[in-house]
Amino acid sequence: MPELPEVEVARINLTRWAVGRTIAAARAPRTRVLRPASPQALRALDGRVVLSVERLGKALLWRLGDAERPLGLYAHLGMTGKWLRRRPDDPPSHSRARLTLDDGWVVHLSDPRMFGRLLLVPGARFAELAEVARLGPDPLRDGVDPARLGQRLARSRRAIKVALLDQSLLAGVGNIQASEALFRARIDPRRPASEVSAAALRRLGAAVTASIEHTLAAFRRGGVLDDRQEVRYLEEGGENPFLVYDRAGQRCPRCRRATIERLVLSGRATFLCPREQR
DNA sequence: ACCCGTGTTCGCTG
DNA sequence: TCAGCGAACACGGG
Q: How long is the CA A165 to C1' C4 vector, in angstroms?
C-alpha cells in the first residue's frame, strides 16, 4: 500500500480521527511491529491527548501531550500496513496495535506482513531518531531541487530508478512513484544516475511532484476519503490510477504506439515505455 | 504448489 | 572504506 500518497491519506484521516482526542487505551499485544518489543510499552500513551500527526516521507510522526512531557510515536506502515478506524466490536484482521479514543472509536494499525514499525520517542525528539535523521527532503513539503539531486547522484553508478528509492535522496518515493516519475520525465530507469543530464534531472524533479499529486488526486476521486470517513484503498475495487505501473503489455498512454515493458532492477519490478524513455 | 509483492535493513563482496 | 547487491523479514493473493 504505502508510498508517500498513501501515507498522506493516512495522515489526513488520522488528523480528522484522532487529533484533539484523548487516548483511553493503547495496546500492541504480541507483535513485532512495536519496537522495542514490549507488550506493555504502548500504555505510555494512555490518557494522552493527540496533539498532531505529521508526515515525513513515508513516516508518520505523532505528538502526544501533555505539554511538559511530550511523547512521540514514530509509525511506518512497511509494505502492507494501514491505519483503520473501527467500532470496538468490529476489529480488522491483522490488527497489530489499537488506540481506543475517548469518542468510542478504535484506531488500528493493521499490517499482515508486519514490516511496519512503531517506535516510542521520548520527548517527541524525532530528529534524534536515525530513521528520521537520514531522510532527504519530502517532495510534497519541500519540493525537489534538481541541482541538489545532481550533486547527490554525480558519483553514483546505480540505475537512476534504484537511486530514487533511496530515502535519503527524496523521502517518500517508492517503487511505484519511481517508475511513474521516470516515465513522466522520459528517462530510462536503467540509466546510471551520474549520466542523467541536468535537463533530465529538472524534468525528473517536476515529474516526482506531479506524479505524487496526481496519485493523491486519484485517491480522492476514488473515494479513499469518503463521506463515512473510512479508508478505502484503491485496490479494493478501484482502477489502476498509474500511467505505467503494473501495465506491462498495454499500450503506452502517451505515444500510443509502443507497449509498456516490465523489467527488474535491483530485485524490484520496473515499468517503462521503451520507445520514449532513453 | 508456486510465485509475486507499493519497504527496509543486514551482511557479504569486490 | 564503501557502494552496491541479494537475502531476509512474513503473510496473503493470484
A: 13
Nucleotide C3's nearest residue (CA vs C1') is A156
- Residue A51 (CA) to nucleotide B11 (C1'), in angstroms, measures 40
Other C-beta atoms lying within 10 Å of the C-beta of residue A136: 19
Q: Is the whole model's pTM more than 0.85, yes or no?
A: yes
Q: What is the pLDDT of residues A6-39, one digit of tens each?
A: 999 999 999 999 999 999 999 998 788 998 778 7
Q: Which nucleotides of B are covered by protein (CB under 7 A)?
A: 4-9
CA distances from A268 to A41, A189, A214, A245 (A): 35, 12, 22, 12
- Catalytic residue numbers of A? 2-3, 58, 268
Confidence of residue A60 (pLDDT cuts 50, 70, 90): very high
End-to-end C-alpha distance for chain A, whole angstroms: 29
